[in-house]
Amino acid sequence: MRFVTSLLCGLVIFAPSASADEFSEKKSKNWHQWRGPLATGVAPEADPPTEWSATKNVKWVARIPGFGKSSPIVWDDRVFLTSAIDTGEVVPGATKPEDQPERRFDIKFPHTKYRFVVDCLDRNTGKFLWQQTAVEELPHEGHHGDNSHASASATTDGKRLYVSFGSRGMYCYDLDGKKLWEHKLPNVETRLSFGEGSSPVVHGDTVILVRDNETASTILALDAATGETRWQKPRDETSAWATPLIVEAAGKTQVVTNSSNRVRSYDLKTGDVIWECGGQVSNVTPSPVPVGNDVICMSGYRGSVAMRLPLDATGDITGTSKIVWKYDQDTPYVPSPLLVDGRLFFNKLNNAILTVLDSETGKVVRGPERMQGLKSLYASPVSAAGRVYFTSREGTTVVYKLGDDLEVLSTNTVEDLVDASAAPVGKQLFLRGKDVLYCFENGGS
């Protein structure tokens, strides 16, 4: 695969930035990446509302141009999203949808240009602070009806914002919207043209992007300041959508990836594989979850598996006693699990059937049981202030009180399609609908 990095304006000089310690202190108050500050779905310092509707506890609602399934991230007083806007400009030579061959799931390839945009909104008012177009071009393939051309969530280290549009490239901005660099990526083909979606992650001075697909799967490490390639490694994988996890363990900074053939841990510095473990199933989407000195990986399409794996392992541990525990039923297809207070929460496939495991033993604490008021789920559950929030595609969120009884505190509905995961930050909860972003807060209008 050929990668070309383009630095804008030649040399880029950056203003003084927060130290790693300052970032570590601040991130627990924010939601700087997919799955939040701990990569577990928990907001340790948030206390969002438990009740809302289209008219209750609404601080603001902002209309988002275009279409995207990426989840919002929040840093200080700013909220960031990505979207793709169909310009309607027909590209010469592109085949109109009505003239294209039939494909499974009625997937059509675009014949018009799209603007791939990054949105920044004021957290307190919902007003746009800036919107930047990363690139405008014709997508090379379509996507599943439940996916989008902008499904990867952004991430930030408090200094810069990192955004992936898959085959449309990686882009970096300062928090005021100035483009600092872009990194062009080659086109890849996803399974049945489902589309791309794995989110980038940043650690220190390195940004990681996993591109599992049908043509040339890779993991790529970029310099966070310049976008230049530090290393890239081929992966013996087919299409998957799981976002990687970066964690300090066993004396190394590890990048843990979840996919169909193998869970792998890479050395962040070199890209070398530290350990690996087979046993996942197809179309892997749930992200790895850190727990103590281990990691939990799961998948749920055409089979079910969840495994707790040791981060101090080396080599291939498939089928060995190194695996702490393994569970083999009712795991999720699209949503990632939630880990809070030693309990692992997840749903079956994309259905509202809940299982809770003891994360230490892998034993069932509750379930499987149907969650009343919910139907299908793509959004991943989140937790804050001793509560768990599950949101359905139909716009309904059930809020549970943590505890053995899992008391239902409230059932809240907005009449909207909600596939993106919620972001609880401070006293607020951010929820992305089909074409709007909601901010809920106690005392809102």
TrEMBL record:
Top-rank taxon, per record: Bacteria
SMART domains to which the protein is assigned, alphabetical: PQQ
Keyword Glycoprotein listed: no
Keywords: Signal
InterPro entries: PQQ_b-propeller_rpt, PQQ_rpt_dom, Quinoprotein_ADH-like_sf, WD40/YVTN_repeat-like_dom_sf
A Pfam match: PQQ_2
Signal peptide per UniProt: 1-20
Domain Pyrrolo-quinoline quinone repeat stretches: 117-366
Protein name: Outer membrane biogenesis protein BamB
Organism encoding this protein: Caulifigura coniformis
